[in-house]
Amino acid sequence: MRQKNRNMTKKNLYLASVALFIHCQIVVAAENLGAGKGVVEKFHATLLQVMIQSDNLGFSGRVDALVPVLAETFDFPTIARIVMGQHWKTIDAHQRSEFIAIFGDLSAATYASNFAGFSGETFETVGVEEKRGTILVKTLIERVDDEPVTLDYLLRRNDGMWRIVNVIANGVSDLSLKRADYTAIIKNEGFDSLVSKLSDKIISYNIGE
Amino acid sequence: MRQKFLMSSKNRATRLATLLVVFGLVTGCASTPNGDPGDPYEGANRKIYNFNDSIDRKVIQPIARGYVSLTPKPVRNSLTNFFDNVGYVNVIVNDLLQGKMTQFLSDTGRFVVNSTIGIGGLFDPAKAIGLRAHDEDLGQTFGVWGAGEGAYLNIPLAGPSSFRDAPGFVARTLLNPLTYLNPVVTIPVNVVNAVNVRANLLEATNIRDQAALDPYTFVREAYRQQREFKIHDGNPPGDGFDDYLEGEGDSAILKIY
Could you give the CA distance from residue B256 to residue B238 in angstroms, rounded to a whole number? Predict the structure, then answer.
């Protein structure tokens, strides 16, 4: 009788710990999804503010408003590494930090240019899923007189924080586009030419405003 | 009699299309020393890209911009609806070829509703009753059947394509009722369609002009991804993100979705 009780206790303990483990996994998974969604929604909230106050801010004001939130929500060092492909190994530490910095500046200029002015757009989160250690947040930009734009964000955890590593707009991955584009330039013209072309792009965004 | 049949232009086109598909499927991706293995004809493609771009900037874009400024949006929307509807038989046939039976039924319904209640396709009442538009073509069908992309191609005046996707141009034309009307009607109608399509793409090409450092590569990459996306109906299979952190070769298409 005692043996049976002891076995029952062991079994119950075992089942209880399995249940607790599964519960924890579910809670952690849900927390991750929530964290990922929060990062994207924070970015969208800033974009919306920038669009609404677009005229007051002007181009440089929009850039200044976007730089801190981009640094927080995007993982530029990882993005830079992927975008450079096999050439990342061939550049030194100084060139790497130069590239990461200019890439961040270009991102800020691009968003400041493309999200200027407000015509009733709304950002809507339509789904969040965990995929092979990354999180995919699916969103839509609803526009008043036009088809909505699907905007999917891929996030990866780095240093305990979830950050955006890819934006997929209407099925086209920004990371892939940039990687193909930039590696073509490096292959044909070299790293310095790439950096100089990126600087020229930033200048043209500034002038275009 | 048989000789005549084989040499008729529609059959010539069909034979050429078949040849392209077989060639593409058999050769898959030939590789060149430093280039992208999916683009073995990059040299010729770049020349054609530059040619297309030049004609686009000098002739087609100005016409498209003029058209946009002169034509109210509701009119342009109706024209887009009309041409989408008239080309919808192509979608329906490819639904069937891909075995998408529910979509086949829905798309047939959509075509009937829009052609009748939608007054010849000018309006889109089908969307309001849940029969939304799908996008299928012969190239996607081959993709669903397992064909790889084959070599990337830039076609004069038509733009980016591939060995797998090019036969779709022929199929699309053959399955469009407008093809069978008198050329006196079809030629101006096709011109209007071309200008309207170009106008609808102005936003996309503005983004390209603004963002691309190497427009040829930008367009090629964007085209390929769009095709992957469409073949898998918005859910392309991807690789793990960390696979790419150790510097995969440039030529690998990044499959992170």
Answer: 5
pLDDT tens-digit readout, A90-122: 999 999 999 999 999 999 999 999 999 899 999
In the numeric block, the tokens 């005229």 are attached to A55
Shortest Cα distance from A43 to chain B (angstroms)? 20
- Kindly list the distances between the CA atom of residue B165 and the CA atoms of A35, A134, B92, B156, B232, in Å, as whole numbers in the listed order: 41, 32, 17, 15, 15
Interface mutation target, options B214, B216, B243, chain A, most CBs of A under 10 Å:
B214
How much helix, strand and coil, in percent to the nearest 5, is found in chain A? 70, 20, 10
Note the pTM of the prediction, 2 decimals: 0.82
Does residue A106 sit at the B interface (CB-CB below 8 Å)? Answer: no
Return d(Cα B39, Cα A28) in angstroms, integer.
Answer: 44
B182-210 per-position pLDDT tens digit: 999 999 999 999 999 999 999 889 889 98
Distance CA B195, CA B67 (A): 8
CA distances from A37 to A26, A138, A158 (A): 16, 9, 16
Q: Give the distance from CA A107 to its chain's centroid.
A: 11
Among the partner-chain residues A89, A131, A166, the one whose CB lies closest to the CB of B247 is A89
pLDDT at res. B28: 43
- Chain B residues touching A133 at Cβ < 8 A: 240-242
Chain B residues with CB-CB distance to A134 below 8 A: 240-241
**Closest residue to B225, CB basis, from A82, A176, A183:** A176
Is A97:A88 a contact under the CB 8 Å cutoff? no
| CB neighbours of residue B211 within 10 Å | 19
The model's pLDDT over B16-66, given as tens digits with 9 standing for 90+, comes to 555 555 544 444 444 444 577 889 999 999 999 999 999 999 999 999 999
Which chain A residues have a beta carbon less than 8 Å from that of B211?
110, 177, 201
Q: Are A109 and A9 in contact (CB under 8 A)?
A: no
